[in-house]
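User: Reviewer 2 asked us to show a designed sequence for the structure in our supplementary figure. I'm pasting the structure tokens here. Could you produce the per-position amino acids so we can include them in the response letter?
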């Protein structure tokens, strides 16, 4: 019955575009609860991922049966019953990950995000306990199953709620667990989830994708241990090698086309900070390659289990080379100066590795025109040309599109930017003509022209503030 409700729960969220005939709903409880049985989900749960489910308590959607149903399933993910607890937890995890209606994905993402976010609400240290760790592990398994699911309709609903905050909080919690066996296993599963997430990147929505991916790379590279792991137990060594492999596979997917973004407030220039960040990652990858070579040499000298472990390093080495290629490909301007010297390194293996990396980025079609000294100025110049682009009839498609989509709270800044750009191109007259025409078109009466808090009014105000740039308009 629970699986049936999971699979068909999406019908409770169907929006009615036009009023239709009344539908019979059988009585299912007291009248106070029955009146909500036919109410569909409101937009705050499904179509606005920024608003949490708990903040919509005043609407019918947060009180709907399907919302309470999902809450109860999440509570059962950490069921602690002595006899049937494990069975319940396993079944609920599989139902949510494999049977849940795609229409319920946004609601589930929001509820998981809110639940995990509570771990970080307190002022003190993050509460690390068996229940929280169990919930995190269950969440990782559910998310991986959902993203692995390519059934019809899943892509449509995956992007209706952002999972950035939830993913970052998952990593932040797991990295506190240390390096015990269970923690290593959870980290490995989380890395596999990140890789799947990047495979479904086009179906997901990100608020700040580049910043999010940079942060994930920072966290996951901390888990790459290489030969720094001095564990005496061969089983733990195997687990750490699995974690190295999973971490590097996830990092490879994250670094594809990713320009490095250093943390703000480092006190150094952007290019210098990018250069230092590139060197940090590139050095880590080179050290990991050296570790692979050393272990492979040991494996050839001794037999048995060590030889079997060394054979598994071929895949790790391949992932590391791919990570270096993706890193250099997306950051040639800041990284080539650090990596080009490896082509002349005295160690033959190092030179061969660099040639392999260089070959891969050339095959990927890396553009080296970003190495020009004027690259930043050229990029801004192209951006200005795009914003000030004018059509055959004097229309300004990009500027007017910005005027339509930028929220009112940012109109002052937009007015300043538009006036500055168009004045630098001697196109201020065209900007004012288009903005004023739009103002007249939308005005209810002549008395309301330029009296509202509109973008056209703000542009006109900024022109008068500057003063000198209004001369072309008077002429």
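Assistant: Here is a per-position design you can include in the supplement:
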């Amino acid at each position: 019955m629970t699986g049936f409700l999971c699979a068909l729960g999406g019908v409770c969220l169907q929006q009615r575009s036009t009023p239709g005939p009344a539908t019979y709903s059988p009585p299912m409880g007291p009248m106070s609860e029955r009146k909500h049985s036919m109410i569909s989900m409101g937009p705050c749960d499904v179509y606005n991922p920024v608003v949490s489910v708990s903040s919509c308590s005043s609407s019918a959607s947060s009180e709907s049966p399907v919302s309470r149903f999902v809450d109860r399933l999440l509570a059962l993910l950490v069921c602690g019953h002595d006899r049937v607890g494990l069975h319940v937890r396993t079944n609920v995890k599989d139902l949510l990950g494999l049977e849940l209606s795609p229409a319920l994905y946004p609601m589930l993402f929001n509820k998981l995000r809110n639940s995990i976010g509570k771990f970080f609400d307190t002022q003190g240290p993050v509460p690390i306990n068996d229940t929280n760790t169990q919930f995190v592990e269950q969440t990782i398994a559910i998310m991986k199953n959902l993203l692995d699911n390519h059934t019809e309709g899943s892509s449509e609903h995956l992007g209706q709620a952002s999972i950035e905050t939830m993913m970052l909080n998952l990593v932040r919690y797991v990295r506190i667990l240390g390096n015990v066996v269970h923690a290593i296993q959870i980290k490995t599963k989380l890395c596999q989830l990140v890789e799947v997430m990047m495979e479904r990147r086009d179906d997901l929505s990100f608020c700040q994708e580049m910043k999010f991916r940079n942060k994930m790379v920072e966290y996951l590279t901390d888990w790459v241990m290489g030969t720094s792991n001095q564990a005496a137990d061969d089983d733990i060594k195997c687990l750490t090698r699995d974690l190295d492999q999973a971490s590097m596979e996830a990092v490879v997917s994250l670094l594809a086309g990713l320009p490095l973004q250093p943390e703000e407030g480092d006190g150094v220039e952007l290019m210098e900070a990018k250069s230092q960040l590139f060197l940090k990652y590139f050095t880590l990858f080179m050290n990991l390659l050296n570790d692979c070579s050393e272990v492979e040499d040991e494996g050839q000298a001794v037999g048995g289990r060590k030889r079997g472990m060394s054979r598994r390093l071929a895949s790790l080495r391949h992932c590391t080379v791919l990570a270096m290629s993706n890193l250099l490909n997306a950051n040639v301007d800041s990284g080539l100066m650090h990596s080009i010297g490896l082509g002349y390194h005295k160690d033959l293996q190092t030179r061969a590795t660099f040639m392999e990396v260089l070959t891969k980025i050339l095959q990927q079609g890396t553009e080296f025109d970003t190495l020009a000294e004027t690259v930043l100025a050229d990029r801004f110049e192209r951006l200005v040309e795009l914003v000030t682009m004018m059509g055959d009839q004097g229309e300004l498609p990009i500027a007017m599109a910005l005027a339509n989509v930028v929220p009112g709270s940012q109109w002052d800044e937009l007015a300043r930017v538009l006036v500055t750009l168009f004045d630098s191109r001697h196109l201020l007259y065209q900007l004012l003509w288009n903005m004023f025409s739009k103002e007249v078109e939308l005005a209810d009466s002549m008395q309301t022209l330029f009296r509202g808090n509109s973008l056209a009014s703000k542009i006109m105000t900024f022109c008068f503030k500057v003063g000198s740039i209004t001369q072309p308009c008077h002429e």
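For the response letter, you might also mention the following. Residues 1-12+36-127+134-162 form one domain. Residues 93 and 138 are 7 Å apart (CA to CA).
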